[in-house]
Every structure is written in C-alpha cells, then in structure tokens.
Amino acid sequence: AVVSTQSGHYGRGYKENEEGQIDAKFVGRVPIEKGDFRVVHTLGATENFIVLPRFSLYVDFNDPVELGQNIKFSSSKPVFMDVVSLKDGSRKQFTFKAHEAQHIFNSYERYNDKNELEIVVDYPTLDSVDNVPDKNIFELLNIETLTDPNFQYKEHWEAYTTFRIRRFILNMDTGTGHIYDYPQMWSPLNLQVEFPYINDAYRGLPYCYVYLQTWNQDAHNAMGIIKVDM
Q: Could you give the CA distance from residue 222 to residue 120 in angstroms, rounded to a whole number?
C-alpha cells in the first residue's frame, strides 16, 4: 500500500499473522517536489520491487468541497516511475514524457539478452496526449455531459478515442527506460480500452493474457470484452 503526504509517498507492506491480525512494516519512501502532487491510482509489484508510477494527472487544491474538480491533466508534466526495493528500500527513478494512464495490467522482472535486470510495467494509455484538454477530466462523467444530446466525444475529447497498450521497460542496471507500443489489434480502432484484468496467479510474474473492457462512443457507449495475447 502507499500512504501519500505533501512531502512524499510512503510504501507499507501488510501481512496477516497467525492470529488474523495485520502486521505492517515500512517499505520505502518516494520524495515528491513541493506542489507537484500526482494522482497515484494503481501501482506495480514484482517479487522484489514496488513500482510507483506518477502519470500526468495532478491535484490542484482549489475546491475544498468537490474534490474531483481538483484533478487535472497537464501535458507539461513528465511521468515518473520510482522502483523501490522490498529488501532495503533503495529507490531508482525513471522519467518519461507525459502520459495519461490509470489501471495497470501487471509488472514483473526479467533479464534481457545482456543479462541486465529489467522491470516490465504494462498499461493501457492514450495513444497521444497532444490534444488532451488541460482541465478536469471528470467532466466527462458529469450528468450534464452524459445527458447532452449534442455532446460528441470526437469533437470535444478526441484524444480519449484512441488507446494504446504500452509497455514501460525499466532497466535497473543502466538506469534507462524505454517504451514498446503494441499494435492496436482491435476493431474499430477508436475503441476505448481500459479496466484490465489478468489471472491473479500471475500478479508480479511473467504473464500472457489480459482481458479488457471496451466501449465505443460512436455506438452510444456500446461495451464489450477483449482478450489480448501479450
């Protein structure tokens, strides 16, 4: 679990003891720059590491009542992925250009052909953030928006109609990260692809299949489920 404060994110490990009580221990700390408070929605866990992703959604504390109004997107905010060791709490940070992503597929450890340790982190992301409005994204879910017969996603939120399965590869030996984009293997291509689920037996381990929910604004939010071979 992650406990967030204004000064940093704190990782805590939880385990149930023989009496059924929860034992917690401090795992590590990820400091954050003052005023740069990101939305950490899901995180990754492997056999030996925790991956704390901070995408380009941020909190702008202006409205003390409607807290969702404070969550905004900025294409000028880079993505930070901090990898924290479960063994000693040491941390390594990787930086990428701005992305918008919410729900992780999975994360796991592997060795490349140079025998370098890599952490693989898979997400469904927007294909591009070039046209994402720099405002509160939850306006999409407002009842006024959903009941407006003249509202068109393509016209007002076009960036949210093109998704990509994106693999972030974090090289723990070189300290470099790179991205692999999977081909868009669904039709029509403007499906929104989100809410991934995998076999829980493979959490934190190499895996093969992921199931995703899809919906299509052109068909009045018609929904479906796809299975992808990773």
A: 32
pTM of the model: 0.82
Q: Is residue 57 within 8 Å of 137, Cβ to Cβ?
A: yes
- Here the tokens at position 9 are 């994110």
Show the tokens assigned to 182: 């999977």
Distance CA 227, CA 213 (A): 9
Q: What is the mean pLDDT of residues 63-68?
A: 66
Torsion of CA 155, 187, 138, 157, to 10 degrees: -20
Q: DSSP assignment, residue 58? A: E
pLDDT per residue as tens digits for the range 197-226: 999 999 999 999 999 998 876 655 678 899
Tokens of 30: 């990820």
Tokens of 63: 């409205």
Residue 11, phi-psi category: left (phi > 0), alpha (psi -120 to 50), beta (remainder): beta
Residue keyed to tokens 């076999």: 199
DSSP class of residue 53 equals: E
CA nearest neighbour of 77 among 131, 40, 43, 36: 36
Distance CA 142, CA 125 (A): 22
CA distances, 217 to each of 127, 129, 132, 193 (Å): 17, 19, 17, 12
User: How confident is the model over 17-46, as pLDDT tens digits?
Assistant: 777 777 777 777 888 887 788 888 888 999
